[in-house]
Amino acid sequence: MTGSDKEVHHFYAQVYYEDTDHSGVVYHANYLKYFERAREDIIGVNTLSKMWHEDGIGFAVYKLNVGYHDGAVFGEKLDIRTSWVKDGDYRIIFTHEAWKPAAAKPAVSCTLELVCLGPNKQLIPIPTLTFLN
Amino acid sequence: MTGSDKEVHHFYAQVYYEDTDHSGVVYHANYLKYFERAREDIIGVNTLSKMWHEDGIGFAVYKLNVGYHDGAVFGEKLDIRTSWVKDGDYRIIFTHEAWKPAAAKPAVSCTLELVCLGPNKQLIPIPTLTFLN
Amino acid sequence: MTGSDKEVHHFYAQVYYEDTDHSGVVYHANYLKYFERAREDIIGVNTLSKMWHEDGIGFAVYKLNVGYHDGAVFGEKLDIRTSWVKDGDYRIIFTHEAWKPAAAKPAVSCTLELVCLGPNKQLIPIPTLTFLN
Amino acid sequence: MTGSDKEVHHFYAQVYYEDTDHSGVVYHANYLKYFERAREDIIGVNTLSKMWHEDGIGFAVYKLNVGYHDGAVFGEKLDIRTSWVKDGDYRIIFTHEAWKPAAAKPAVSCTLELVCLGPNKQLIPIPTLTFLN
Fold first, then answer.
1. CA dist list (Å): D90 to A109, C22, C104, D123, D127
2. Rounded-to-integer distance, Cα C27 and Cα C22, Å
3. DSSP strand pairing (C58-68 vs D9-14)
4. Which value does ipTM take for this structure?
5. B84, B96, B62, B98: which is closest to B130 by C-alpha?
6. What are D85-125's pLDDT values in tens digits?
7. In order of start, what are the domains of chain B with their CATH numbers?
8. Mutate to test the interface with C, among B33, B52, B66 (most CBs of C within 10 A)
9. Which end of chain B is more exposed for a tag (fewer CB within 10 A), N or C?
10. Would you call B21 a catalytic residue per the annotation?
11. Beta pairing class for D108-117 and D91-99
12. Residue D61 φ/ψ, nearest 5 degrees
């Protein structure tokens, strides 16, 4: 519920058994879950619920790219650092990073484009929302 | 689409990276995914899709119990053996077992009760379906 | 890190997109993830990490049974209420409940037996741990 | 076990309940699981198991980018089309597409770089493997 394109939002994700795989580190697709939890914290679950249930509109991931630099292990608490910017009327660009405790650089970094879909899954302009102010 | 309460249905589940955790074996909750895939194979995805999209009804898990005897590892192809029986008008009881290759007994066994919910999430009688013949 | 067999431990699990399925509620297997997160909070991730990396021992789920009474939806914050008791030298019995906000009874309830496995996956006595005091 | 950089490998992924979210389509991170299953089919699980357990080496995802064009729904059988090419001594580039039945273009497309890590998580040259011939 905090943050803007000028500051960085922090969300903490604990690495649980469910997140790791037999190689000993977090399974590569699971960082996308951490990043989405951070976005839901930023946009607000009440806002998302209301948009979905009352207006039939929802956000959808349109594009993403991820770089993996280090692996997080069971028990670590990751600092998910997110910034974002609205780009035109139709998309928001998020930059996410997953930081291990006391690390000098992010373990995983991601850029992601979010769009908004209406009741018939058609592209609609991003609504006016508090977190975009 | 095959099987009845007199025979055993076989469904094969490959253990992928995504299924394991850092202890080296399949994460305990993921066997429930294998068992559901087997049930969807038994009931038929077309039947399930049609029930859901045309009639607004769906199956729901009501109860389950699981016993864990051995751990499956990456790369194993598990034989999911399932039998089932209709119990009264409102529930179907499934017995699932996950067998590792060349094993003498199941690695994981499960008994599960499935019920049917109508459009308002109310309990309804199990419809007449081919796999129950 | 708190709790004993005399009191109830509270752990809060936010329902994210990743947790739900197309029927609109939390996928049945995912409650087991919430319950495990609660157990990891109770036992302590540092304790679990140390046991695993230094002593090569870990906890394993031996048995569980679950009853599903209501479905949690996106955006809800579930109160996972857990109590536990050591049963003999070799197992701990956990009772977990998932409570929706302002509910009169649990949405999902679970009883689960945890055992301890040594370096060769053999059953070993439960070690002396703070949360069992 | 088939395919080369000249041809396209086909792997079929059934969309199960577990794969979808409450918006009605496959959760965005889960396509990465389908793509990894395809790669494991291409490289061979026996090869991957042997590399891991005997030599202590494994593949790791280094980079990926994904474009989402359409959403897959419960019950669909997706055709995961993959091609790949070795790029220098240290990486393999995979191109994955997820095709819905009877579609004119892919629902999801992905380019992914795989590297190889040795026992101490150091970067090592890609070993000589059949699927790279």
1. 21, 40, 58, 8, 9
2. 9
3. unpaired
4. 0.94
5. B84
6. 999 999 999 999 999 999 999 999 999 999 999 999 999 99
7. 9-132 (3.10.129.10)
8. B66
9. C
10. yes
11. antiparallel
12. -75, 130
